[in-house]
Amino acid sequence: KGAENTFSVILCVEFITGSLGNGFIALVNCVDWVKRRKISLVDQILTALALSRIGVLWLSLLNWWVSVLYPVQSRTGEMVKRIYVSWTITNHFSIWFATSLCIFYFLKIANFSNSIFLYLKWRIEKVVSVTLLISLFLLCLNIVLLNTYIDVWIDRYKGNRTFHYSSRNPSVFSTLLLFTNTMFTFIPFTVSVTTFLLLIFSLWKHLKKMQHNARGLRDTSTTAHVKALQTVIIFLLLYTTYFLSFLVQVWSSEFLEKSLIVSFCQTAGIAFPSGHSYVLIVGNSKLKKACLLVLWWLRCRFKDVEPPGP
């Protein structure tokens, strides 16, 4: 019981920090959009990613609270369908916007002489648009398959007032969910990892070249590339943790008595949409500057000191 309470506290902390971080990203970009009357492609992706991650966080917390406070009602067929479909939609957009961000940074920052890469580099907006269109097709296919599996399973046990998917040959239902969710999550995960590994290779090669030319001295350009490498590696670690926790959680759905495993996977998975928002803030100059201004304002408010003028 103590471990479950610990995971519950961690989940609440992740929810609060994730909502604040992603809400800050969306707010800053929206305010900047209103002021400038225009918004760049990367800010569009960041704003959409932040909003979708807020949806994921709220649905994850809602699902957790419903399962704890209303365990019987949460097992009904209609409730299972609503939870899975709602979570699938928000999680799908969250993953694919993150994938679009990976593609954008890869094409924008990486440096290869390959003709295909150069062709795509000059058409970043079209590449991102095509990627999102493909993701919409995959989302529709995912929802259709998910609804079909759940409807078939509900009809099979229509005589029961409550649909307990965990008590009726759970391995079949779990395998179906594992197949659909893993298949549709594996595609953007593979694209993201591939593009970022190529980006790491490009940055590492460029970093070695600059260090050689500077004879070991770190100039500002070298430091910027080192920070970019660190940001990319942190993203990969968080994304890999999320994907692995997702696989384990779905695979463990037939072993619901091992609730600690499921709770651990949930808290580990939420760390990606929650913690990555702060990685984005630190790595983006506009967001970082706005964050420092907010922190300075809060410091002045608490100390009852007026901030210095421009």
TrEMBL record:
TM ranges: 6-34, 46-66, 86-107, 127-150, 186-207, 228-248, 260-281
Location relative to the cell: Membrane
Any one cellular-component term (Gene Ontology): membrane
Example GO molecular function: bitter taste receptor activity
Pfam families: TAS2R (PF05296)
Keywords (A to Z) from UniProt: G-protein coupled receptor, Glycoprotein, Membrane, Receptor, Sensory transduction, Taste, Transducer, Transmembrane, Transmembrane helix
Protein topology in the membrane: Multi-pass membrane protein
InterPro entries: TAS2R
Highest taxon, organism lineage: Eukaryota
Record family assignment: Belongs to the G-protein coupled receptor T2R family.
Protein name (Swiss-Prot/TrEMBL): Taste receptor type 2
Organism: Marmota marmota marmota (Alpine marmot)
Chain's gene name: LOC107152746
